[in-house]
Structures are given as structure tokens and as C-alpha cells.
Description:
Elements: H1 7-10, H2 15-25, E1 39-44, H3 56-69, E2 73-78, H4 91-108, E3 113-118, H5 123-134, E4 138-142, E5 149-151, E6 154-156, H6 160-170, H7 176-186, H8 198-208, H9 224-243, H10 247-250, H11 253-266, H12 271-283, H13 289-296, H14 313-318, H15 321-329, H16 345-349, E7 374-378, E8 381-387, E9 398-406, H17 409-415, E10 428-431, H18 452-455, E11 463-466, E12 478-483, E13 500-504, E14 509-512, H19 516-525, H20 536-544, H21 562-565
Helix pairs in contact: 3-9, 4-5, 5-12, 6-7, 8-11, 11-12, 11-13
Amino acid sequence: MRRLRSHEWLLGRDELGFQHRGALRLLGLDVDRYRGEPVVGIANAWSELSPCDVSLRMTAEAVKAGVRRAGGIPLEFPVLGLGEDLCKPSALLLRNLASMELEETLRAYPLDAVVLLGGCDKTIPAQLMAAASADLPALQLNAGPRPAGRFRGERLGSGTSLWRLWDEVRAGRLAETEFREVERALFPAPGACNVMGTASTMAALAEVLGMMPAGFSTRPAALPERFAAAEAAGERIVAMIDEDLRPSRVLTPGAFDDAIRALLALGGSTNAVLHLLAIAGRAGVPLGLDRFDALSGDVGALVDVQPAGAGLVEDLDRAGGVPAVLKRLEPLLDGRTPTVSGRPWREILAGAAPPPESVVRPLDRPLAPAPALAVLRGSLAPSGAVLKAAAATPSLLRHEGPAVVFDSYEEMLARVDDPALDVTPRSVLVLRHAGPKGAPGMPEWGHIPVPRKLQQLGVADMVRVSDARMSGTAYGTAVLHVAPEAAVGGPLALVRSGDRIALDVPARRLDLLVAEEELRARRARWAPPPSPHRRGFPRLCLDTVLQADEGCDLDFLRPRDEAARRFVPPTVGRS
């Protein structure tokens, strides 16, 4: 029998072996018959604080059944779940904490592999970051999208329909009593957002990266086939132990290139840029914004799912899910890296029929032209910024206008609907001090609302610029993740209302049109804003978080060389 990690705990003949096996006896396991079977951890982010993920309880039971059938011992444990709906001000603040918790749990216990169960937004990235750091055989499963609710005969897309209909309320075209009907209809059953928001995007990219079984990510939350597939995944993780198939073999540069192409084709969440950078950093794969920019010219938005399109994730699932998207991208894919199935995407896709064009467009007839996602640089964003061009207004992709500056989210909420606000449709709305250190945690505040007085005139979109993030379910011409952020003295900190800002997406530029001499004078008078955070994880984040162009991980969690990447096993002795 090949020596496994768990054997260090459980095969000892001394008093420590007795102690460890006795602990498992308390779980009802027949340790008298233990002969060195592999131990599989099931990291379950199920939580009533994240109602989207409640189906993960059933998923965990299905995985356990599969592990047992394959001859393994499943041990389920809770991990921090990050429910974007209720977590304030930002689940991203806790992404790194969740990854640390999981990594240290994997380090501390007798586990030979792990099945990762997550759903809402930042949970899957956190789990993949931990898996990359720990480098034990790992397999990711998601909670699945919820079914569509209906309002006046229209299928509602989670988040996307909410933002659109709330704008109707703010403009006075929809009564608040009617909006309560929308509230009831938006949440008809458990599951993650059913549009290509961050949850669906990151689940799909986990699949493209090779960490999730093919076709799993888009399967609706309560579908019986999902639990049958989870059981099969439980069997598969035991085989992965025998094959020593670890994340370091799966998370390769080619896999990340394919994930970026898929992100573009999906019209996926801009949050995915941060998460892919962070996961790659943990895996020791060199990845920067320039790689996103280099690949963006070949791929427009191909998938007709909100917010870039009109459909829902259930439509993509019926059309073949993520494999259908990759079939369209096949001429561009690397596709050589092994996936958790043991087979590379090239082999999985071989012989598959093209998907229906009504849901997944061909490369040469995209739903929205390339770039679906643009990386911008310039005097206002020296280290980069991103814009989801597929969900922006085409006429605003080249724009110049005067800035209307909000120094905080609270100030923006207080002023944006003030009839006296000096704003026109040509204005550029600017929100700052909402970045990784500024909030901290870079909340999803970048979808600045169009001022009410302009909405009432029929203005539906404006150019917005911020160092914040935006919900993947949102839409509009929003330039996000401006780096360096204002709180560390980036150029965004120097903007004044009335300054002219130029956006040129075809040229990939974002510029502040102010003379350099004036900017030097402003910088000489600038001082960093005070922070109310003095303790706990927010304090640690303020001291160590990286900027958006590096994925917002904590600097000490990103290995700088191979020695720093090594997952040091614990010394198995008395506790």
C-alpha cells in the first residue's frame, strides 16, 4: 500500500495511533477494520447565513456515499461560507480569511484529499486559493444556480433584473408596492444567482480550470442529476489520491489562459479578474492584467446570458453548459492540462457537437464584439482598471466629460439624488476610497446609480469610475478596480469635480486630463485618509493586502519562490 498522509496519524502502533483511531471511533467508524483506507475531507460552506448554499447539505451526503463506495473514509467539516447577499460591507474582505482557514485545516488534520463545496460569489475562489496552497488532491463542486422567478410574465434574472427594476422605481415608473412583488419573485428557491454573476462565473471557471467535473457548474441547484454527479465526484476523488492528481498538475499557465478566454466568452463577472489573479498567485503561475489584455482581442461575448445577454444560466445548461462554450472556443484553447477527470479538455471535447447558436454564438458572430472585457491603463490608472465592455453602452466606450467626485460611499448615497447636484449626461461619476485598503475589502460599490434627475429624463447609463468592484450581475459603463487605489495615493485620489476624464476603450485608455504640474501640487497636499479599523482581520488586511492588479490577496500568502510554496506537514505528536 502506498504511504498516505493520513497514515502518519492512523497507522501508528503507539499511544498516538490509538488516540487518533479512537477519535474516529466516536464518529461510529469501525476502526478495528481500518487497513489504511484514504481519508477524504469534505469542506462544506453550507450556512444559513448564505441561503443560496443550503443545497450543499444534500451535496455533501452524496459525496460521502461516493467516497465510501470507492473505499475511502469521508470526513465532513464546516468552512467559512461567504454569502454576498447578507455579508457587509464586502465578502471579498473575508475571501482571504476563508482561504487561510481552509488551508490550515487541511494542514492540521489527517486528510489525503478534499472535496470543496461552495456556492456564493467569493467562496469558490477562497477554496481554490486554499487548494492551490495546500496542493492535496482536490475537487470543487458548487451549489448550482436557482430557478427563475417571474414578474408579469417575465423570467427574472437574480440581481440583473433587481438593478433594472429598482432603477424603474427611482425614476418613478414603477411603484414600490409593485417592487415588493419583484422581491418575492426573485428568490423562488435556493441556489446561487441564475445570471452570469460572480457565483456562476467562478463556478464555470473552476470547471474550465479543470478543478470541477465537466458540465457540473451550470446544473440547477435542486436537480436530482446534480446529486448523482456529486456521488460520482466522491468516487473520483479517491481515484485522484491513487493518481496523485494535485492542483499543481491542474492549475497550469495553459489552464489559466483557457479560463480567461472562457471568462470573455461568458461575458462573465469582472470580479473573476481579481480571483484568477489570486488563484494563480497561490499556484505560483505568473499572471497579470497584461495577459487578460493580450487574450481579449480574440474573443467577444458568445453566451446569451444576463447581464451581457438576455437568457439565464438554465438556458446555458440545456445547451450543454461550460463544455458547449469551450467547444466554440476549441480553436483557441490550450486544452492540454489534465482536469480532475484525469483527461484534458482536448480529449473531453473531441467529437462533441457544436451547441445551438441561439445560446452560444460562434466565434465569428459574437453577441458583443471583442473585447468583452477591457483592461485599461493611462494617467488615471497606471496599474490598470477593468471594464465589462459586453455589458456597457457602446456609445459610451469613447467618452470625455467632467468629473463628479464622491469621496465615500456614504457621500455618494447622500448626494447622488440631490436635485442640486451639478451633473449632466456627459459627466463622469467618480467614487473613491472604496478599494482593497480604502473600505477596506473593495466592496461592490462601483455600480454608482445614475442620478435620479437624469433617470427621470430617460438617461439609463453614464460613465462611472471607481476603485471599487461591481456585482457580476450588474451592467453599465462602469470602470472598476482602478489601481493604485485612492487610499494609497493613486491618481484617483487627486481628481477634483470638474476635471475632465477621457475613456477610450478601443485604445484601452483611461486618462485624467489635468496638467502634470497641477497634479504635483495636489499630491504635495495629499494625506492618506484615516481608517477606523484598529484590530482583527480588517487591520491585518489594511497592513498586507495587495492592490487589485495583483488580485487583492494578502502579501504573505502569495509565495515568491518554490520554497515558500511548499506545504509543510505538521509534526504528528501529542496535542
